[in-house]
Amino acid sequence: MKAIIPEFDENSTRPLYLQLYDYIKKQILSNEMNPNEKLPSLRSLAERLNLSITTVNLAYSQLNVEGYIYSKPQSGYYVCNILHRGEKSAIDSKTELYDKSGMEYSLFPVDVEKTDESSVFQYDLSCFDFNKWKKCMNKVLTEYPHLLMFESDPQGELALRYEISKYIYRSRGVVCNPEQIVIGAGTQQITSHLCLILSKLGINHVAVEEPGYLPVKNMFRDRGFVITPVDVDKDGIKIHRLPANIKSAVYVSPSNQFPTGAVMPIAKRYQLLEWANHNNSIIIEDDYDSELRYFGKPIPALQGLDNDQRVVYLGSFSSTLFSSIKISYMVLPEKMADIFKEIGHGYTQTCSKTEQLTLALFMEQGLYQTNIKKLRHLYSRKLQKVIGAIHKYGNGIIKPTNTSSGINMIINVNSKKSAGKLCSEAKALGVSATPVSIYADDPTGHQLTMLVFYYNQIPINQIENTIQSLIKIWTTVK
C-alpha cells in the first residue's frame, strides 16, 4: 500500500477533507494507486495525518459516491478499476479556459456599433433576493439602455454567455468558451435547436433514460427521432443496452438522474464516453439539480472528462431563480457550435434581452452563487426534517430513497391504494407527488405505489405536521 502523504494548506479556504479528497483522487488517476488496492482505515489515516476521523470519513465518502473507491462491509475501502487512468481530463488538458481565440470580452460594451445583435420544479422563493435582482435590472435599464435598442444575438447575450462559462467551470468543471454556449427560453427551446443540429449530423436515433424526463422524450418524438428507452439502475443508464454500431445520441442526467436520483460513478462515465467514441455518437448531458447536493460536494459534470468533443451540456436557471425567467442554455462541442452559427441567423432569440443582461450582472456580482448556497442550506434542512418526520410517524408506511440531492425524493408507500389515489390525497393537503410510472414508456416495469415526492414547496415549519397528515390520510381506508 502506497503511503498517503498529502500536503495540506492550512491557509486555504478549501476544507481539509476536500484537500485530502483531491490528493487521493489524483493518486488514483495517475496510477499511483492500483485497482482494488485497500485504503488505510479511517482511524489509522486520521492518526497518521493528525486529522479527525470525521474529516477522513468525509473525504472517503465523496470519493465513494463519485466512484473512485468502493467499500466492502467489515473490510474497508478499496480503489475502483477505472478506465482511462493516467489520462488528463479535458479540464486539466485545456490551457485556455474561456476563449481560445484570444478575443477580449467586454461584459457590457458601451460602443453600440461593436455590439452583436412548471410549478413543481419551482424553488423556495424565500431564498431569493428580489431587491438585489431589481437593482441589477435597474442598472441595465438606466446605464445600458442603448443595448436594448437592438435584437439579441441568436446565441444569447455575450455578457451572459461569458458569465455562464466562468460559473460552470468553477462549479461544475465544464470546459468551454462563450462561443460554444447557446441560450434559449427553457430546456424545450434549447432541445429544439439541438434537434436541428443532430439532424445536420445525420443523427435521427436518440436513446433516453427509462424512467426519464417526459418533455424531452416528447420533444425528440415530435421532431421525428427514433426513441429507444434504456433502463436505469442505481448507477444510472445501462450502457450495455445502448444502441451499438449506429450513429446516435443518448440523453442522460448522470449527476442526478430524474426521477430516481441515481448518480453515475466515474468509471461508468468513462465507459459512456468510450461508447460515444466507438459509435461516433453524441452524449446529451442534462445537469438537472446537480448543484443541490447536500452531502459532500456536487459531482463534477461529465463534459469536463470529455477529450473528444462528444458531450453536449444542458443547464437552466429557471429552477434556481424563479420559473418565469425561462433562461436555459447548452454548451456545444466546437463543431456543433459552428453548425448552429450557420443555421442560427434564421432564428430570433427567445429570451428577454433585459433579463439576460440582468442575470449577467447578477452573476458577475456573485449574487447567483450566494442564492445557490442559500438554497442548498435550506433544502438540506428541509430534507432532514422530512426524513426525520417519516421515521417518527411512518411506522414503515413510507420508505424514502435518493435522499442526498435535488428537490424531490422517491418514496415507496405501503398501501393498497393506487398511486393516482395517493397523489390526489397528497394534493388535497397542498403537497405535490407524481407516480414514478408516468415517467416510463412501460409503466408496468415500476412499482405501482412508488411516487416522486416534492418536498420543495412545503414551508420548513410545516413539514412535520404535513408528513403526519399525509401518513394519516394514506392509511385511512376509503
Automatic annotation (TrEMBL):
<keyword id="KW-0032">Aminotransferase</keyword>
<keyword id="KW-0805">Transcription regulation</keyword>
<keyword id="KW-0808">Transferase</keyword>
<keyword id="KW-0804">Transcription</keyword>
<dbReference type="InterPro" id="IPR015424">
    <property type="entry name" value="PyrdxlP-dep_Trfase"/>
</dbReference>
<dbReference type="Pfam" id="PF00392">
    <property type="entry name" value="GntR"/>
</dbReference>
<protein>
    <submittedName>
        <fullName>Aminotransferase class I/II-fold pyridoxal phosphate-dependent enzyme</fullName>
    </submittedName>
</protein>
<dbReference type="InterPro" id="IPR000524">
    <property type="entry name" value="Tscrpt_reg_HTH_GntR"/>
</dbReference>
<dbReference type="GO" id="GO:0003700">
    <property type="term" value="F:DNA-binding transcription factor activity"/>
</dbReference>
<dbReference type="InterPro" id="IPR051446">
    <property type="entry name" value="HTH_trans_reg/aminotransferase"/>
</dbReference>
<dbReference type="GO" id="GO:0008483">
    <property type="term" value="F:transaminase activity"/>
</dbReference>
<dbReference type="GO" id="GO:0003677">
    <property type="term" value="F:DNA binding"/>
</dbReference>
<dbReference type="InterPro" id="IPR004839">
    <property type="entry name" value="Aminotransferase_I/II_large"/>
</dbReference>
<comment type="similarity">
    <text>In the C-terminal section; belongs to the class-I pyridoxal-phosphate-dependent aminotransferase family.</text>
</comment>
<dbReference type="GO" id="GO:0030170">
    <property type="term" value="F:pyridoxal phosphate binding"/>
</dbReference>
<dbReference type="InterPro" id="IPR036390">
    <property type="entry name" value="WH_DNA-bd_sf"/>
</dbReference>
<dbReference type="InterPro" id="IPR015421">
    <property type="entry name" value="PyrdxlP-dep_Trfase_major"/>
</dbReference>
<dbReference type="Pfam" id="PF00155">
    <property type="entry name" value="Aminotran_1_2"/>
</dbReference>
<dbReference type="InterPro" id="IPR036388">
    <property type="entry name" value="WH-like_DNA-bd_sf"/>
</dbReference>
<feature type="domain" description="HTH gntR-type">
    <location>
        <begin position="14"/>
        <end position="82"/>
    </location>
</feature>
<keyword id="KW-0663">Pyridoxal phosphate</keyword>
<keyword id="KW-0238">DNA-binding</keyword>
